[in-house]
Amino acid sequence: MPTRTNRRLRTALGTVATLATAGALMAAMPASAAHDRGHGHGHGQDSGRYQDVQLLSFNDFHGNLEPPAGSSGQVTEKQADGTTKQVDAGGVEYLATSLRTARKNHPYSVTAAAGDLIGASPLLSGLFHDEPTVEAMNKLDLDVTSVGNHEFDEGATELARMQNGGCHPTDGCYEAGKKFQGADYPYLAANVTDEKTGKPILKPYYVWKHKGVKVGFIGVTLEGTPNIVSASGVKGLKFHDEIETVNKYAKILDKQGVKSIVALIHEGGLPASSAYNYDCDSAGAGSGVSGPIVDIAKGITPKVDALVTGHTHNAYVCTIPDPAGNPRMVTSASSYGKLYTDTTLTYDRRTKDIVRTAVKTAKSVRSANHVVSRTQDKAADMTALIGKWNKLAAPVANQAVGYISGDIAGRGAGTPEEPLGDLIADAQLAHAKSLDPKASLALMNPGGVRSDLVYKASGAEGDGVVTYGEAFTVQPFSNTVNLVDLTGAQVVQALQQQVSGSNEASPKILQPSAGLTYTLDMTKTGAARVVTDSIRLNGAAIDPAATYRVAMNSFLAGGGDGFAALGAGKNPLVGADDLKAFNDYLTANSSAANPIAPPKADRITIVK
After folding, report:
1. How high does pLDDT run on average in the chain?
2. What span, in angstroms and rounded, lies between the C-alpha atoms of 135 and 147?
3. What is the mean pLDDT of residues 225-244?
4. What SS3 class is residue 101?
5. Which family does it belong to (predicted)?
6. Which among 250, 253, 201 is positioned nearest to 225, based on CA atoms?
């Protein structure tokens, strides 16, 4: 979280709560402690041998307390006639109402999440180091979550503060006389260990208990977290194989007599349809999903009864057979609180295990995704929470930084090249040229574009006005804009790494600044997808032997997202943070009379 914004907030408010230094918060919690804070939501009596347990789950909330704007706040819904429509969804006021409504008449109900609840958050949460989101999750009665890669954006010590509480060591407490209490729910990090001790940095598992029913939860993030998080965020940590870790702790739980087990895995899949309510099993069990989660699901021990997943921001409810050939539910609920998954686990009191049958009967695992509709009533306590933090954030959030003439799609573009990605690359190149006139191109990672810029006013600022808060939502990471020397050959290699190596299965297309053009032939495989003789910079072919001054954010300059070629740059020069570069560009290049038009996103020619 950028401390620059907090300094600006303190200046704007004229005062700030008393600073307090957070204590040592990285003490590892013992793996053997089965945490018993389980509770049943609602009322009811035990019902004989079999007891239905309601599992409510979501993932990748990313601090979206307010309803996400534009396409980022919509889900695709399949209609009875086969057509689809977009439905507005999300916002913690509505998520709270949805979960509380779903729990009614379910005396055995547990709520879990699969990571990335915080990190890459809009300003309302990110400005305050995501304390508002943890506070909201406490009010939601979240029982347990796994960590995700974004839980490590500010490092392990800050993650420990999210769990244990205490005021921020630099920015202190945000409300006079109030200390941040931390998460009421456990963060699980079974496959993340301290390099020195070899022990998990947080609890590896949690056992939910209610009236004789026990369900164990094991939480892991993707093994490749170090490749997609800044090096400072994962310093001193080791990330282990998801399958091996889950299997290890499933054995431990089994020996403790916990036979019903759910894995919370911050890794996901790619559904065959963008509609949240499509039938993933229509052509056979698990036929409607691909990607990393499929192999993970197939490798995890049959001791685990269900997998709640995330990371890819997709929606699916699929049955993927376990290694013994038994059906097993694998779910994901999109992102930003737009959906929640309601899964019924039928618990057998005699065997202490979940009943899993070859067909979906009354005694089996049943699951479905549900829209967090904005037509329902808002949860009053969440409205109050948002209002409290908005009051603190307002002096910063409402500042106008630029003007646009229409929606500029970023995260919601759904195309390899995003109009907003191009605009950010142009902004970084402009900043780089102010530092070094020799700067010739800029490249922006797609994962760093977190939202859209929406023309319609979100508050009182007026249509077409871009506020600091809206820009922050687009670029919340506080990366710096870096300049490095790359040979033409390295530039070509970087473009090839978009679609090869670790990025071959799920390409990460860099957003190019104006002047860089090329063709991407997706009918080919690997590095051959980049048509090298089509690459042009300001109309001229890239010279493999020439040196180019290339701008990028500090994440890419460190080789992040599998771009080793970018990490090999020479003669580095560090500029301002990327949000400042973006805001400065918007301010310098737009006005109410002359707003910025959405870029055409025509710098990359895609052949399918």
Report:
1. 91
2. 17
3. 94
4. helix
5. Belongs to the 5'-nucleotidase family.
6. 201
Does the global pTM surpass 0.70? yes
Q: Are 551 and 428 in contact (CB under 8 A)?
A: yes
CA distance 508 to 560: 11
Angle between helices 380-397 and 131-139 (to 10 degrees): 170
**What SS3 state is found at 533?**
strand
**Which tens digits make up the pLDDT trace of 267-283?**
999 999 999 999 999 99
Structure tokens at 118: 């915080």
Give the span between the Cα atoms of 94 and 558, in whole angstroms: 39
Place of tokens 């407490």: 173
How many whole angstroms separate alpha carbon 441 and alpha carbon 590?
22
Residue 179 sits at φ, ψ, to 5 deg, of: -100, 140
DSSP letter for each residue of 549-603 = EEEEEHHHHTTGGG-HHHHT-EEEEEEEEHHHHHHHHHHHH--SSSPBPPP---S
Work out the burial of residue 594: count CB atoms within 10 Å of its CB; fewer than 13 is exposed, 13-18 middle, 19 or more buried. Answer: exposed
Handedness of CA 451, 456, 458, 464 (dihedral sign): positive
Q: Rounded to a whole number, what is the largest CA-CA distance in the chain?
A: 76
pLDDT digits (tens, 9 = 90+) for 328-374: 999 999 999 999 999 999 999 999 999 986 544 445 689 999 999 99
AA letter at 333: A
Query: Which residue in the block uniquely carries the two structure tokens 């534009």?
Result: 70
